[in-house]
Structure formats: C-alpha cells, structure tokens
Amino acid sequence: MEGHPATFPTTPPRAGIRLPGVGVGVGLGRGMVVLYLSLMVMLPLAAVLDESLSGGLGAFWDSVTGSESMAALKLTVICSLIVVAINAFFGTIIAWVLVRDEFPGKGAVNALIDLPFALPTIVAGLTLLTLYGSDSPIGLDIAFTRVAIVFALCFVTLPFVTRAVQPLLMEMDREMEEAATSLGAGGFTVFRRIIFPNLLPGILAGVLLAFARALGEYGSLILISGNIPFKTEVSSVFIRSQIESGNVSGAAAVSVVLLAISLALLVAVSLFARVGAHGEEPGVLPRIVKRIANRSGGIGG
Amino acid sequence: MTTRTPARWGLRTLAFGYLGLLLLAPVAMIFYKTFEHGLGPPIDAMTSPDALHAIWLTLLMVAVAVPLNTIFGVGCALLLVRHKWKGNAVIDGIINLPFAISPIVIGLSLFLLYGNEGWFGPTLAEWGITVLFSTPGMILASVFVSLPFVVRETVPVLQEIGTEQEQAASTLGANGWQTFWRITLPAIRWGVAYGVVLTTARVLGEFGAVTIVSGSISGQTETLPLFVAKAFEQFNEEAAYAGAIVLALLALTTLLLMSVGGRKAKAQGGPIPITGDAAISTSNAKEDS
C-alpha cells in the first residue's frame, strides 16, 4: 500500500481501453444499476416517507411527540449515549492492548473483536440472556431492565471504536512519546498530551458509527429488553408494535425521525473523517470509517 | 514497551475483563447450555420439520440474495470506478443507505409497498403474486439489508489495481469481456470474495427486516433467526439454543473467512488492514507491505 498515493481519484478516462459494457453497454449498465437501486431501496423508502405524511404534517408531529413514542425515542437516545461513552473508554483500552502490548493468543483476541459483527443479533441477545437472564448461573438477573438494553447495545457495538483506533495507534510515531518521556513527562502526561489527541479522531469516528448502529438496533434487544412501554421499549421495538397494532402511519413517522438522525450521523462521520484526517496520509481515516461501516453489517440486524 | 508494568497489567485487566464479561462468558455459556445434556437434544431439536424448514429457507435466502447482490455489486463498482459520470456520487450515496437504516424500518418500507393497501400490493395480488408474508418479500428484505457489501469491498480494490493491465490486454486485442474475465476479475477476486462473505453473514443472521415481512409462520416463512426467537418465546429453550448454536457456528466460520479474506484482499492491495493477523503483522513491521 505504501507505493500508492493515499487518495484514489476515479480512474482517468480510458485511453482506448475496452471494458465490459463500453459505449452502449455503459449506458445500459447504468440504467440497470439505477433501476435496481430504485426498486430495492428508493421506492420502499419513498413509501415510508409518503405514509408518514399521509395524515398531514400535524398528524406526523402528533405521532412523533406522542407520549409512548417520545418515551421510546428518549430511552433509545439516552441508552445509545451511555453505550458510546462505555465504548469510547473500553474500545480505546482494548485497541491499546492489542497494538502496544504483547501476549500469547493476541491474534485470536484480535479476531474475536469482530465476533459481534459476525454473530446474528438474535443470537447476541439470547447469548446475553443465558448468562445475565433469569436463570443466571452467577445470580445476576438484568433481563427486562434498562441495564439489559445497555448490555446488549454494548455487545453489538463493541468493535467500532477499537477498530477505528487500532490503525491510528499503529501508525503513530513512537518518537514523539519517547521525546516527551525523555523530557521528563510521566506516563499519564504522555497519554493526555500526545497519545490521546492523536487518537481522538478515531475515537470520535467510532463513537458516531456506534451511535448510529445503537439507534436502530432491534434483533439483540427483543428477547432481553422485555419491550415494556415507557420502561424498556426502544424506538425500533415501538415501531414494530405500532405496525402490529395497525398504526402504520405512526410507525412510519417515528421511522422517518430515526432515519433522519442516522443519516445526519453518517453524513457527520464522512465529513468529519475528511476534516479529521490530517498529516501526510489524508486518506487513512475516511477509509477506516468506510471499512468499519462495511464490516459492521450496517445498522441493526 | 514504554508502558510501565503496573499500568500495562491494569490496562490488560480492563480489556480482558470487559471482553470476557461481555463477549466470551456469554458465548461460552450458550455453548454449555446447549450441550449440557449431550449431543442428543440439540440434534433432535434441529432435525424437527420446522427447524429443517427454517434452515432450508435461510439457505434459500442466501442462494438468491447473495448472487443478486454480487452481480450488482461488481457491475456497479466497475461503473463507479472506471466510468466517470455526474450521477456516480448519487449512486454512491444511495448504496450507503441500507447501512443508515434500522432493519425494522426496512421491513416497514417493504410492508408499505407490498402490503394489501400498499403501492404495489393490490396490483400484484390481482396477478396472483403474493410478496408479503411469503418468500419473495423475505428475499427482498435480505437483498435490501445486504446490498452495499460487495460494492463497498470491490471499489477500493478496483481503484488500487489501476488500469495498466487492462489497457495492455486491450492493446493486445482482447475485447471487453475477455479483459474482464482474464484480467479484472482475477485481480479483484479476493475483494469480491470478502464482500460475498459479509453479504452471506448478514443474510444468514438478518432478523429485524425479515420479521416484519415474513409473518413468522412456522414451517412456512420462518428463517433460522426467526425460529430461534419464536422457540425462545414459546419456552422451547432447547430448540432456541440449538438454533443459536448453528447460527453461532456459521458466524465463527464467517469470522475465520473474514480474517483469511481480509489478509488475501490486503495482499492484493485492497482493504486497509484493520483486523485479523493482517493488523497484527503490521503493528511491529510497518514497512512489510
């Protein structure tokens, strides 16, 4: 990778190059891509937007600000905030241990970090229930509480911060730290003044991605949260219950709000990744962000 | 190591403690619970007609959604990277959308299109086609949630390999298809394979979107994740755990393929190393690539 520039412009216009679908084919290919995306993604989303506004803006507002839906939204946002704070702390520590520490089995631990991305969310929820549910062998029963929601969200968002910080930590110049140490700085000062500022963009990118994921999470929560309205009902579960009770436009309205928040977050991540990436390799952070987003299997599950 | 020993042990304890309590212990526990009474009960649970049908249906989702998104993904990546167009930025943005959307919202969106009062539902019903609460709807949901992976994994590899070899092939008289099959595809195959692994994992485990459009009818529209949820809710814990183990084993396989694929794709000059041994090996020897 070192031999290539960090930013990849679109390949320059072909000089006599013939690829599949040149000329007519390119147009046809583009048409098919646009058709596929429209049918699979855009039309369904348009239907949600349309349904949310089917009763006018007033009805939309009422659906979103209804007491149960507001309680669900508040719970979702607060739990997600707690979860990303936990992630920022432990994710950075895990990244540190994986990059700077040496211990047997490091490769296995490193691969294990991706487990929450690979494990189906329903299995994640069930897994937590076996240890922290009513049959808990260690006597810790958190099922159907808000703590359970935080646990489940921590589980599914575990890799984000670690995976965003790891590459930054690897690329960091050790000389700065050594210089600081030789000038008499203690371990904590070095961390606070040198290491932390360098890792901050990665931590923030990981936090934003984890937050977006936590907002939409569903599969890992339904078994463990108990889905009690006003108590442990998050927005995605609320949407589900509204669909089942026939209030589809209410479900659509809350969906649009969730959609708007996570879209704004993703735009923030990509803008921020572009700004936050500095130094001689401007392309690192955006690529890290893209790859983590892909690894994560998107949002929810 | 500049970190002093006590600090290092402190950080180790925190990291391992967190991973152990959140990740390792629960996963070990579910394995223990499943095989508590030997291999018999989980095998019985997984060979019941409903369970077998759920496994079959899950594989069917994979068999349809993965090829569809792979063909689309490679084609779309080629167009995005090799052919400049004003609309590329828009396409790129739309491809990211499934990542930004809660699976429940994806399920709702399909419900609104293909339901009895949906945009297309009534017309399709007249033609005798049911989408909702049957296999087509579940396939649409699976395609939607797993759409971005192959594109996202293929684009960076295509950018990295450049066009020199393709140009050479075409100078030597190869036509478009020959160039694609002989030069481009072999060069990007690990990136594509990696995308396929991620797509498969997502389709296998998808719950939220499929639960809305499937109706979860046992033996008919129930995939393995839905089977697990229903079995648990009906206090059939043995079946729930057994199904979860099958899914967990598939996830572990995915994880293995991810670290192999990630390494191969990296060797090909594609993805940046952020996982598996690829990440480890570069931590101490940055110049190795």
Verbal overview:
The complex is a heterodimer of chains A (301) and B (289). Chain A has 301 residues and is mainly alpha-helical. Helix content of chain A is 72%, strand content 0%. Chain A has a single domain (50-295), classed as Orthogonal Bundle (MetI-like fold). Chain A has helices at 24-52, 56-65, 67-100, 106-112, 115-118, 121-132, 146-171, 174-182, 187-216, 222-225, 235-244, 248-276, 284-295. Chain A starts with 23 loop residues before the first helix and ends in a 6-residue tail after the last helix. Chain B has helices at residues 5-34, 40-46, 49-82, 88-100, 103-114, 121-126, 135-145, 148-161, 164-171, 176-205, 208-214, 224-233, 237-267, 276-284. Chain B is globular and about 65 Å long. Residues 270-289 of chain B have low confidence and may be disordered. At the A-B interface, helix 1, helix 3, helix 4, helix 5 and helix 6 of A face helix 1, helix 3, helix 4, helix 5 and helix 7 of B.
